[in-house]
């Protein structure tokens, strides 16, 4: 797995824990992390997450995380790395929700990266029980990484 972490908004230096985000991404991607894939994680502000949400999902609200899977191009040679997905994380929402859920900002940011990775690996959260399972898995992954 090739992972790129971009900070396209102001994120405090002490929270730019790229290695931790890559670890959360790899664990959330599960078996996909062992394939020759490329994933981008982009930390953005509320204005940008709203733009992405409107443009690509036709949702007119600010959200915490958005992930996009990309299909493997059929003409790509078998061992060639390919763009597997993108995860957009709203840093400002993470700051707000960290207080709301009694997490650190770093934990909340990792929750969104892991949640996005779980989506890329095939999990869905449209039903409450599926969302609860994704949250359980994300929390377990984060606990393993941070402890």
In words, what does this structure look like?
By secondary structure, this protein is an alpha/beta fold. Helix content is 47%, strand content 19%. The radius of gyration is 15 Å and the shape is globular. The two termini are 23 Å apart. The model has no long low-confidence stretch (mean pLDDT 94). A four-stranded mixed β-sheet has the order 1-2-4-3. Helix 1 runs parallel beside helix 4, helix 1 packs across helix 5 and helix 4 crosses helix 5. The protein has one domain: Collagenase (Catalytic Domain). The chain contains five helices and four strands; from the N terminus they run βαβαββααα. Helix 1 links the parallel strand 1 and strand 2.
Please specify the SSE layout and strand pairing:
Layout (H helix, E strand, L loop, with lengths): L1 E6 L10 H12 L7 E8 L1 H12 L7 E5 L12 E9 H10 L4 H16 L7 H19 L1
Parallel strand pairs: 1-2, 2-4
Antiparallel strand pairs: 3-4
Q: Any descriptors?
A:
47% helix; 5 helices; Collagenase (Catalytic Domain); four-stranded mixed beta sheet; 147 residues; alpha/beta
Q: Tell me the helix content.
A: 40-55%
**In which order are the strands of the major sheet placed?**
1-2-4-3
Give the name of the CATH superfamily: Metalloproteases ("zincins"), catalytic domain
Please indicate the percent range of residues in DSSP E strands (runs of 2 or more). 15-25%
Q: What's the helix count?
A: 5
Specify the CATH architecture: 3-Layer(aba) Sandwich
Cα distance, first to last residue? 23 Å
Q: What is the H/E order?
A: EHEHEEHHH
Coarse structural class? alpha/beta
Rg, rounded, reads 15 Å
Largest sheet: 4 strands, mixed
Number of DSSP strands?
4
Shape: globular
Integer count of domains: 1
